[in-house]
What we know:
The strands form four sheets. Strands 1-2-10-7-3 form a five-stranded mixed beta sheet, sandwiched between helices. Strand 8 (about 285-290) and strand 9 (about 290-295) form a beta hairpin. It has helices at about 15-25, 40-50, 80-90, 90-120, 125-130, 130-140, 150-165, 170-175, 175-190, 200-205, 215-245, 250-255, 260-270, 305, 340-360; strands spanning about 30, 35-40, 55, 125, 205-210, 210, 275-280, 285-290, 290-295, 300, 360-365, 385-390. The chain has a single domain (about 15-390), classed as CATH 1.10.630.10. Helix 4 packs antiparallel against helix 6 (about 130-140) and helix 13 crosses helix 15. The termini are far apart. By secondary structure, it is α+β, with helices and mostly antiparallel strands.
Amino acid sequence: MTETFDPYAPSSDARYEAMRAARARDGGVVATPAGWYVATAAGVLEGLRDVERFVGSFMDTSALPPDEVMISAVPEPRHGRIRRVINTVVAAHRTAQAEPFIRAEAERLVDTALRVHDEHGTVDLVEHVVDPLPSTVIAQMLGVPLADQATFRRWSDELLDAQNSGATGTLSSSHPEFAAYIQALIDARRADPDPPDDVVTRFLRTDVDGEYLSDDAIRTQTMFLIVAGNETTRNLIGNCLHTLACDPGLYARIRADLALVPVVVEESLRHDSPVQVLARAVLADTSIAGCPLHAGERVVFGLASANRDERVHDDPDAFRVDRPRPRDHVAFGAGPHVCPGATLARTEAVAVLDALCARVGALHLAEGFTPAPNPVFWALGHRSLPVSLRAAGRGRDV
Length: 398
């Protein structure tokens, strides 16, 4: 472990080695150019649960108008009040209501992938399954017209590209076209005497601290939900599919025992954390694992490192479906600010794997496969996943 360790560097075997070295040093809290890096599961849990002393964002939001700060960077107690509105849209009971739509969409996309494969001999699962599902589902959940899902998926990518390039402005100023689209939704809901029961309507009708949210605040939080709901879920699904394409034996095993499908999803969340790090600003002097932290400093919580902490996970670098507590990970964060879309992301991933197992007898990475990793600095995922596959019932499935 050296002081040149960059927690925002692309994922690699060398980076996992650096994480291991960080966990073994100085209580698992080390200085990096991005701020204090917390590497252990205990340290990450301690910090993420302390929402009074840490507030989260990868950028400094102190100069932004308060109404244009995304929910992840809004401090308590206002954070919790806005979050309650968000939870009414993506909470577990809402996801359960949406599950039939999610499963039907996953089945349709896998069927499409099979047709493309029949025509071309290979199919890119990212293009035909991984990318379309989360954007379609979040459109359905948020009341965005499904016909526009491809457009706002592109807008989400453009916003993330801007973040990767160091953009420090508001979401609306970083992407005016996207912002104008959401503003039009706000205007339409306000003018409609009987608007649909979606996130924009709920933002308009629910007060926070006795006041209703401004259009700037509604626009900012809606844009953030679309980007977050799209990006993290497709990373999860792509990572699951990559693992199964690399391990035909594991794929055959889960096809024979579908009860393992949710376990594969949880192990993928742990082993290949879609969100590798979470950044926080220190609001008040405190400490983690004996390391003093001062107000104004930056902290990076290493989710990927915590999820491979030897103190918590036996044989942490191995992908295993026999772990006694599959959900014992921090892939969605922890504490009061745990990802509100966790249930939705899990449901989508399970729906894809169930549809795949029912329709595809075998899949393998296409000959000459070259990884195309997600370029977003905080993420782990795939931008392309060409595979060869065989429909179930066509010859041997293993």
